[in-house]
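quick one, two chains, predict together pls
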Amino acid sequence: MHGYAGKILIVDLSKGKVVSKELERSRAKKYLGGVGLAASYLWEHIDANTDPLGPENMLIFTTGPVNGTGFPPTGRFAVCSRSPLTNIWAESHAGGFFGPMLKYAGYDMVIITGRASTKVYLAIDDRNVELRKAEHLWGKDVLETNERINEEFPDAEIACIGPAGENMVKYASIQVCRHRALGRTGMGAIMGAKGLKAVAVRGTGEISVAHFEKFWEFVEHARERYTKERWGIAAQESLGKYGTTSLVEAEQEIGRLPTKNHSTGVYKDYDKIGGEAIRAHVRKKRRACMGCAIQCKYVAVVDEGKYRGTVTEGPEYETIVAFGSDELNADLGSIVHANYLCNKLGLDTISTGKSIAFAMELSEKGIISEKIKWGDADAMINLIHDIAYRRGLGNELAEGVRNMARKLGGEAEKLAVHVKGLEMSGQDGRAHKSIGLTHAISVRGADHLRSISCLDELGYVDIARERYKEDAKTILNLRSEELKGILVEDMETNYAIVDSLIICKYGTMWPPILYYPDYANLIFYITGFKEYSDVKGVRKLGERICMLRRAINAKLGVTRKDDTLPYKQLHEPMPDGPAAGEVVHLDKMLDEFYDARGCTRDGKPKYSKLKELGLKDVGDELVRRRIITEKS
Amino acid sequence: MGTRKTRIMIKQENCTGCKACMLACSAWHTKKYSLAMARIWVNEIDELTVVPNVCRHCVSPACMKACQYGAITKEGEVVLINPRKCTGCRACVSACPFGAIKYSEKLKIPLKCDLCDGDPACIKACITGAIY
């Protein structure tokens, strides 16, 4: 099968058994790859009784047809499961080199169930696959684990957990290529619970494509579009030069830079932690994921102060917000060091930083007795260790802000900034209405990457006109709730394809260079699937994947009441900055989104829509479980 | 296209380690994408140091002298391997002082840069000017 390695690995850790199976062609065709393919397995395997940290939960490493080919960016992969942090659908993505390497070894996916009786790691050396002892690695941090495994298994790409994953911190990450994180939704905690320290892979095989000459040309053209033409130059001048760090300045300008535990959208010291400051003080080297033509990654080195000598990839925008503005911390060295520590201990920087900001606000309001002052970088660094090793207050914070707020009750619940249990990424719907809707409806919780629109955020006027014609003006209005349901439905469909191919959000989201016609070409040239050779076909594919993920969540009990926002964004007007006075009026946007997506007004997939998308069996199962009716 | 390349130059500090060169190399030669079939390599020393490595097309090639079967020749300034004459003895791999020849167990040939008939695919794939 062109574009695929052709096999999947089924690992049962309880039995210590690894089996290789053919990838079913019909399934690949229906769900393409990446999160689509993973969702098709999780739909069959998990329900409300699946304990996310129990042996029965399924952890899926997944790639798509693009990965391992020459398309710039080719290096991505994802891990999907039921999240221990949110208890719903989980997907977490990373770049680097691991995904392609897995395919070169011959596998499109690795599906892991069970729990190992003694700690193990999975070693995949082309077709030689074995579970190796990992007792000697348990307790080791990510950097040391990489070193040790590479001594035993040279040239392997490694996805591993650190102490945070072993201790089942609810938002523990899986780290790849040392500094890249599958951060969100606690996938590292699942590996920890399963007694699986790492997956290491070395592959010498190859990936073929269906229409090589056309694909080669498409790749050459894509490289031009990513580096030269109008948006390519824009990408190089922003992402190429600053990574995502220049967003700090951009968000300050529109009043959407989360500050003081998402209380406001402007930060007076933004320039001390923004893109220009990073470039002047810590940025030392540009790096990249496999085959990429945008190359947003960079290496930071702290040259002075307390954290002198710290070397890490990043920090990116989200991490700068999480350890900077959101904690009123303008000490750049400590932000870089916090990033380094999270990578080393295996923690999601967003959830970690936001949990600490939550603790700072609880402390200020006297809800907890610990004294943690805003902007206290030392306290922040100490708490990162305490979270990873579950000590004292860190042990409470390791459960995530929703769990901690529930325990404290009352006022604390109003201060916990999350949706569906996932700590919120660095945006604020009060200043950018479409991101408010995105956070509310995202299938994995308060996350931007499933459907954020940069068209209104960064002002891509021409592209908005091209895509939405006469509606463009309304769509581009940051502070209006009008038509945002339509916009977000389109973005979610778009990114569901992106996350199944799997390509990067840079070049598809920011700048929005690729769109459905490009995906149609890309999928057809690589796989030869005729179904997806036109816009109608790929759009239907995107809708199918979106709907299947929503169906999984519906099965797990998610309804409209969960598609909501933190108290602050619904009830407390933005106190200052360009968006002062704004709150998010969610209901109208939700109705519009559900109608466009094909959901009931209660947020559940409609039977008729599921049928139209080729998911009748999914609809029947939801009817059988009395979640929806056949009449919907 | 202009002049044919007779050598690939490396500007190491520009290399970001993306390996686009390796994928382009593999695809140009085999129509398939694989790191193991590339004839150029990118080695990561640490976070700040990535080093591309490729055949220098030496003036006086050690590999050519080491080959007892006449499989390695110089065509003008370009050092080429004739796979039909190669016996797979790997003397060239040992002889190259730069480690710029690797033997492929799968293809049963030594992998070495042949400059893609004068228009190297790796150069076109490199967006940072590390290979030129």
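The two ends of chain A are 37 Å apart (CA to CA).
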